[in-house]
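Standup notes
- DV: blocked on the single-chain target, sequence here:
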Amino acid sequence: MDDRLFRNAMGKFATGVTVITTELDGEAHGMTANAFMSVSLNPKLVLISIGEKAKMLEKINESGKFAVNILAAEQQEVSMLFAGQIKEKREAEFDRIQDVPVIKDALANVVCNVYSKQVAGDHTLFIGEVQDIVLREGSPLTFFEGKYGQLAEGQLA
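- DV (later): unblocked, structure below
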């Protein structure tokens, strides 16, 4: 099967949008990702998938920690900034939780230490042990078939 067919099939799975953040040598770094899931309640573990060509791969390998920032519906521009879709130079605003940079006003900031990692094809799967969580009210930013979206008002009961 060709790569486009596979990508199209994976695009049929609607997801939320996250920005993965970490810090290395005093500098905050982030990348947009939708490959995120919870893994375990005891211990509290989550999983992210980072491509072998992503600059973030080495940064997480070196720092040993990361945060998953689940974006709110009004944060599409934040996602686009960290996905490299906004070309003009902009500085992102970060808050900090347990000395890890996090995205301001995200629906959730989930701060993790790397628990384990596994190379899988052209990605590395990082399992993170959750150290802290901050939650906010709001609606999620969604991603489906390569496009941003949000839940309809009636779906947020």
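- Follow-up: Residues 3-149 form a domain with the Pnp Oxidase; Chain A fold (CATH 2.30.110.10).
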